[in-house]
Amino acid sequence: MRSWPTPVLPRLPGVGEQLRLFDTSAGEILATEPRDGTARMYVCGITPYDATHLGHANTYVAFDLVNRVWRDAGLDVHYVQNVTDVDDPLLERATQTGQDWRELADREIELFRTDMTALRVLPPRDYIGAVESIPLVVELIERLRRRGAAYDVDGDVYFPVHADPAFGAVSRLGPEPMLELFAERGGDPDRQGKKHKLDCLLWLARRPGEPGWESPYGPGRPGWHIECTAISLHHLGADVDLLGGGSDLAFPHHEMGASEAHVATGSAPAARHYVHAGMVALDGEKMSKSRGNLVFVSRLRGQVDPMAIRLALLAHHYRSDWEWFEDDLTRAKARLARWREATSLAQGPAADAVLAKVRARLADDLDAPGALAAIDEWADRALERSDEGDPAAPALVKDIADALLGVAL
């Protein structure tokens, strides 16, 4: 599947710091230590039945910072992202609106590409759809079957999660919270014939009126979790450096996918770090398609500079749950204007310390608000003393904002 264009990153003097991130499975901030000069990152992508909203953007901007900090530290980054271009929500929306599900998916994927381009999010090296990955999914299910970790329920194929002794290590949840979240987030704990309520779907037999692809189990389509597991294993191997997404994916999606990988490969953990971005709320509730309380990036782009949208997101720490207000955008527009005014000056205060501060803040669990404050301070000083300073400083600050924060001034 086609990705989106790569923005040109300015080269900054020196080398950035080692990145430290909060690991959900460890419950603490840990240093990331990619091997052989390459950082391997998988971030779960969209199900394309609606436009990109600010919750999506918050997640992808967060992992874009990871990508930029790693690159600034001299690492190559192999970034993989999927698209769940066939799944129940997509098929249901297509039926409701009378559209062909493939046309709906293609339209929303293209809109997502334009949103990511506008927000200057670095594209994944491999951008992979679920449909094109069905041969990988079937191959992985076969590996699980050979290990006795797949069983049939009326033509559907399930994965017994407790075949993995490490099940539960990603989210660190107990049985009752797991059951509650599984029911809320696409699971089927009450399905008759399952060996355990938490067992998850590997292959769904084709239902009337729905698409299906041939497999050893008959026509059907992949379950949600196995799709990402198959793509990640194929493109990045069994021990990726970071597996990420929104915090609502820690369970069941990342938990189930990790166990599938553990059993299929015989090794654990499937990822060295599990990292999750916070949820964005509107009117006191999590922004989600089911609630209909969405602020779409494409609509905001028609009103303001996309760099203001990005700054509004960066003003919140990536792990925080926060609520969107119009004031977020107002403050971001003012910040963007001030930064642009300061970097347009013929000279300004020396900026070496700004680079060091921005690098330090981002390396410390992506403290983007702290990084913004460092540039705010420089801009204030530059505008107060616009007739003195270093002629090279404005250009360096401009490059810092672009290369590390993704904000083009």
Work out the helicity level. 40-55%
Let me know the number of strands.
Answer: 14
* Tally of alpha and pi helices: 13
Q: Span from first to last CA?
A: 31 Å
Q: What form results from the Cα inertia axes?
A: globular
Spatial sequence of strands, sheet with the most strands:
5-4-3-10-11
Which sheet architecture does the biggest sheet show?
5 strands, parallel
Query: What are the low-pLDDT stretches, counting only 5+ consecutive residues below 50?
Result: none
The topology string of helices and strands comes to EEEHEHHEHEEHEEHEHEEEHHEHHHH
Radius of gyration: 22 Å
Mean of all residue-level pLDDT scores:
96
Could you tell me the strand content as a percent range?
5-15%
Helix and strand content put the structural class at alpha/beta
How is this structure best described in words?
This protein has 409 residues and is α/β, with parallel strands linked by helices. Helix content is 42%, strand content 14%. The chain contains 13 helices and 14 strands. Strands 5-4-3-10-11 form a five-stranded parallel β-sheet, sandwiched between helices. A four-stranded antiparallel β-sheet has the order 6-7-8-9. Strand 12 (280-282) and strand 13 form a beta hairpin. The protein is globular and about 75 Å long. The two termini are 31 Å apart. The model has no long low-confidence stretch (mean pLDDT 96).
